[in-house]
């Protein structure tokens, strides 16, 4: 079967349309067509010929024609549009589009319900590692830097390196084995040999530290959120420095155990944690002065059963004007066994779409 090229097909359609009786188009449809003709670089003469066969159902204003000219509409197209301005002068303007429904956030759960939710979440977090099977997976870390990072900005990130590690979880212990750094083999070397910014604790210790009784974290309601199309309760929390276990090590020379705060996203209905954010309150004078960490969890199937496991993590930090960002993806979860093997041939493919890494706008 033979197909006509897109431009030829469109031009034929324009020619046929020109033979038809004059048809009516809304202003939106007219402008949609003109913008499409510009982007496809359709012949100016044929676009103008088609415009001569239609009429608009509401007034076309000069400023709209000027906008089309600014986008690159040809002179014959502009002449046809100006003729339509004259023809539609006595028509009324198109009715404005109705405003989208305004989102009104539902009321927060009652204090009693919040306490019940947090009690369930706490119990889940403290027993989280007991629910995990022995497994192996790939941990892919993409590290980027910004040599002139401005506090509070989005940053201008330059890829630095790409680390592939084999992560084994056995008997509630994590073991990391470096496989490659920038495609260079690293067999036999531990993650301590990698240098640069490294984060650990995604597999339960950070969750446990936030919710342990000895931490005495202060929880309060923050907002309703949506994450990966799931409605979530979002609580904010704070942990004092005197009870903190969050450790920051700078070049193995200086350590700090700061206070920290963040948000906990809890999926409504299941009451499982789907996101944890952590922002340490670094002491004055410490080289690292800004850290933002996010850990996302989702259900992953291992040997026919689903478990809540880390999906994605990001750690962004600043030391003076030097910015560092680690984006960590967890892939190919498999049940652990002595003879289990894992392939590393397709780790470049993204684990999850970018829009699923961001909190989604609320729905009205």
Q: Which descriptors would you attach to this protein?
A:
364 residues, alpha+beta, outer membrane lipoprotein receptor (LolB), chain A, 2 domains, eleven-stranded antiparallel β-sheet, two-stranded parallel sheet, 8 helices, elongated
Order of helices and strands: HEHHEHHHHEEEEHEEEEEEEEE
CATH fold title of the largest domain: outer membrane lipoprotein receptor (LolB), chain A
Strand order of the largest sheet: 6-5-4-3-15-14-13-12-11-8-7
> Which class best fits the helix and strand makeup?
alpha+beta
Summed over residues and divided by their number, the pLDDT gives a mean of: 84
**Overall geometric form:** elongated
CATH architecture of the largest domain: Clam
Give the gist of this structure.
The protein has helices at residues 6-19, 27-39, 44-51, 62-71, 75-87, 111-126, 128-131, 205-211, and strands spanning 23-25, 54-56, 135-146, 158-170, 173-181, 184-185, 218-227, 230-239, 248-250, 254-256, 259-267, 273-281, 290-302, 305-319, 322-335. It is of the alpha+beta class.
Describe the structure.
With 364 residues, the protein is an alpha+beta fold. It folds into 2 domains: 6-87, no CATH class; 111-357, outer membrane lipoprotein receptor (LolB), chain A, CATH 2.50.20. 23% of the residues lie in helices and 35% in strands. It is built from 8 helices and 15 strands. It has helices spanning 6-19, 27-39, 44-51, 62-71, 75-87, 111-126, 128-131, 205-211, and strands at residues 23-25, 54-56, 135-146, 158-170, 173-181, 184-185, 218-227, 230-239, 248-250, 254-256, 259-267, 273-281, 290-302, 305-319, 322-335. The strands form 3 sheets. It has an 11-stranded antiparallel sheet with strand order 6-5-4-3-15-14-13-12-11-8-7, covered by helices on one side. Strands 1-2 form a two-stranded parallel ribbon. It has a two-stranded antiparallel sheet with strand order 9-10. Strand 5 and strand 6 (184-185) form a beta hairpin. Helix 4 (62-71) runs antiparallel to helix 5. The chain is elongated.
